Amino acid sequence: MSYHHGNEGVVKVGANSIAEVQEWAYEESDAAVLEKTSMGDSAAEYIAAGCKRGGGSVNCLLDETDTDGQNALTAGASVTLNLYPSGADTGNTYWSGTVIIETVSMSGGKAGFEERTFTFRGVLTSGTVS
Questions:
Q1: Domain of 85?
Q2: Counted domains in the chain
Q3: What is the pLDDT of residues 31-57, one digit of tens each?
């Protein structure tokens, strides 16, 4: 089994890396899971119905100069998002797809850095960096 350290990761909007990424998350699910158990069945049976759903978030240290990365992620924007857990080197697996940016939030405090968090909705598919 292969393990990767988080500092190998890269997140891109199209071909542009997003600056100062601290963490990202992605979750995918079926639109609905329906029970199809019938009278007399000894165990519940389920089927997946509908389309897949996906979404997640990207958390960064605030960088106002990141024009093609952080500043391209505005609420309502449709962008191509690429998640590279182990870097963007040839042969590495990554996830990509068109997503809608749902929210953009900022936070800060006297004891830390200002941060920007982006939430998105869209299904990503896996590929291999060529």
A1: 6-128
A2: 1
A3: 788 899 999 999 999 988 888 899 999
76 to each of 29, 47, 48, 120, how far by Cα in Å?
A: 22, 33, 29, 9
* Integer angstrom CA distances of residue 71 from 18, 41, 46, 96, 111: 9, 55, 43, 19, 25
Q: Has residue 1 been placed in a domain?
A: no
| Contact present, 48 and 66 (Cβ < 8 Å) | no
